[in-house]
Amino acid sequence: MADEITYADFERVDIRVGTIVEASPFPEARKPAFKLLIDFGPDIGIKKSSAQITVHYTPESLVGRQVLGVVNFPPRQIGPVRSEVLTLGFADEAGAIVLAATDKPVPNGQKLM
């Protein structure tokens, strides 16, 4: 378990829900990954992300799926892609990433509470 944090620390991490509107292979990445465009609603807009989720997902299965992402990290250059959000997930027993998501649809841009 990580060190305890305060509620104020938690509030600083801006985790939002968004819908994947486009997913494509990212062959330039060092590890297998997809390039994602995620719609985080009218206030945040559509953001780019690189996600190493190729074991459990195909680009076609990702479009329309809601995911959780950290939207207030600084952008990170990953090869030719400027990743603007961190798409969240958990490692399965083999280490492959399974996306974190809501179990029912919610409006894009909603903040995790």
From TrEMBL:
Swiss-Prot/TrEMBL keywords: RNA-binding, tRNA-binding
Name listed for the protein in its UniProt record: tRNA-binding protein
Record-linked Pfam families: tRNA_bind
Organism in which the protein naturally occurs: Rhizobium grahamii
NCBIfam families linked to this entry: chap_CsaA, PRK10089.1-2, PRK10089.1-3, PRK10089.1-4
PANTHER family in alphabetical order: TRNA-AMINOACYLATION COFACTOR ARC1 FAMILY MEMBER, TRNA-BINDING DOMAIN-CONTAINING PROTEIN
InterPro entries for the chain: CsaA (IPR008231), NA-bd_OB-fold (IPR012340), tRNA-bd_dom (IPR002547), Tyrosine-tRNA_ligase_regulator (IPR051270)
Single Gene Ontology MF annotation: tRNA binding
Taxonomic superkingdom: Bacteria
Occurrences of domain TRNA-binding (ranges): 9-113
